[in-house]
Amino acid sequence: MSAVSSTTTAIEHLVLFSIDSSIPSSQIDSFLAKANSLKALPNVTHLTASPVYNPCSTDAEPFTHIIHARYASKEDLDAYSSHPSHRSVIAEFAPFVSDTVAVDWVVCCEGDQVAVRPGSAARVVLVKVKEEGDKDGILEVLKKVKSGSCREGKSVEVSFGENFSPGRSKGYEIGMLAVFSDVEELDDGLSEFADDLDSQAEMIDGIIVLDFIVPSPPAV
């Protein structure tokens, strides 16, 4: 995949799935394989489908799998969503999925950050703001997380933003994705984040926090 300039923007796309534990592992493996095959579609810049590694909040516990993708534009996201191959995968596995949450936001990518390296560990944070809540205050916390990681020279990529697809988000209005080089760095890298977000607790109506590992491509 070609590198992008430091000013390139992209669309961050996250879909969380809840798949019942009674579903045979062979069917789950088939779902992941077919979902990962969608990265070959012409409008997809990056896509991985994987199990949730660690649900870190109560609201995250029902979710078992995640798709993370990036697109160059909202138009590319729309083209992916309406592509027959994507629709076929969704239709085939819909009976096994009991719940989903999907969010999209605009992200600024630097250098070759459009693609996420296999083996990376990522934390997802989705925030549902109370009706009277201060959305700007929560965004400031996420901005602090991003600027702090850059200032301290950590090998972490942080993106965040306001969701622009409310019809699929179940009320989650703000998303953040922090990508670390491995699980050890993830465990150490967000120690101050929880305290910062706790300062906005009165404004938050719900929060999903979970981790996933970016899978390696299948052997050829």
TrEMBL record:
<comment type="subunit">
    <text>Homodimer.</text>
</comment>
<feature type="domain" description="Stress-response A/B barrel">
    <location>
        <begin position="121"/>
        <end position="220"/>
    </location>
</feature>
<dbReference type="InterPro" id="IPR013097">
    <property type="entry name" value="Dabb"/>
</dbReference>
<dbReference type="InterPro" id="IPR044662">
    <property type="entry name" value="HS1/DABB1-like"/>
</dbReference>
<feature type="domain" description="Stress-response A/B barrel">
    <location>
        <begin position="11"/>
        <end position="105"/>
    </location>
</feature>
<dbReference type="Pfam" id="PF07876">
    <property type="entry name" value="Dabb"/>
</dbReference>
<dbReference type="InterPro" id="IPR011008">
    <property type="entry name" value="Dimeric_a/b-barrel"/>
</dbReference>
<protein>
    <submittedName>
        <fullName>Stress responsive alpha-beta barrel domain protein</fullName>
    </submittedName>
</protein>
